[in-house]
Amino acid sequence: MASTLGPRHGAASLMATSASTTLFRRLTWEGTVPLEIRVDSKELPANSNRGLECYFIQAARVSYLPLLVPDVKKFLVDVVLDEEGAKILKEEDWWFEAEDGSPLKWHWPIGLLYDSHTIAATIRPNHTTDPIPLKLVLHLALPPTDKLLLVPSAEACKQAFMGQLKEADFIRWGSTKRMTSLRKAEQDGIWEGIKEHNFDDYWRVASKVTPTTIPARSQSPPPGPGSLHTRPPSVDPGTTTTAPDKDGASSVRSVPVRIYLPDGPVLQELAPPLLDGERPHTVSRFLTSTLPLLFPETGKRHAYALVQGVVCPPETELSWLGACMAGADGWVNICIGISSG
Amino acid sequence: MASSSPDTHTRALPTAWTAQENLENIAEALNALETYNKKDASKVVVRFKAVGNAPIMRQNFYKITASNRFQAVIQFLRRELGWKAGDPLFTYINLAFSPAPDDTVSNLYKSFSTDGHLIVNYSTTAAWG
Question: Autophagy protein ATG5 UblB domain spans which residues (chain A) (predicted)?
Fold first, then answer.
């Protein structure tokens, strides 16, 4: 399972990644959120078991709505529909609608849909802070193809996912070489890892394109033999240098990060891992420079940052987030909520 | 070990003035959100570059409103090329990746522009997958 190649041989392996990086990657991977999927009863065929058409699931944050379709279909066939009803199901016409009536962005990871719903609640009066399920309506027919930018098939979902991985690759390194140098089997494998929700299968490939991070500060000299660094084979191990690891989280041009405002726009700004080449860039400094009205340099802040459902301490380093708590598509999604006091 | 003091068993309700302060804080935050919600009306330069057999347009540089989604750029390109909705059209940024249709031109420009413009490649076949 885990590669037996040591760090010197360059193949980024789980063994060469620090234990805490792996821990946080696994925690992110195992995160789930509650969804309540209600089928539009107007679209249920006759003789359906009405009153049961609500499907509850604790869905993986790193997964996607189109990947839930097989499970929902099985539920409908087993519980709600009779034989005739089951025969006329056409998954290619299925689409999801949000509580506010808009078609859901099915190409967003489920965790992001949920966090976005959480922060939207923070600007509504008298909202509760208890976690409530994200309520979706599943339509079985008549997808609004003019509003739905893409049809939510599993194949389209895969293409969208790969596109986001490549965009993240480009943000980090200024090219998509790392992604395009993956063999086709590996590219397919990374998506299979998502579909089957298999951490090892996903990271077997993802570790080749995702920067890793080391526990020590980036300015310290590289650790000796038995290091937890990953090094490409071309780096001469005899060279002593204080330069950060070439493929490490602090060497990227920019961390792929997006900021989501409640019911609001998505912002994408360049986020270099180090400010002035030295100080690690933190969530606090990044938000102050991007959203100074909500995160003033001094004075009380009335907003907070949510990453993978966790409130982010302000001193969290962006490079660390990029290596440990990004979504499966490579992006760190920071959702901004308004504090209620 | 439970203390015998009665105070520890009650949650102090917010006093009137802290509740007011709360409302003010939230109002301030909502005002800030209003500012950030405003659509960026500025325009950025998009440069369309044909790939492979795709036809080259007479005009390649266009000023596009920054707050537009990339989907609008795709539709604009279709109209300029005179292509119908069903005709295959693949678009890429910097010959590298296809952005999500709801990515804004503003965000793409900030992250990927070169020499003051955003390069959008277009092709009739899937090139970079």
Answer: 255-336
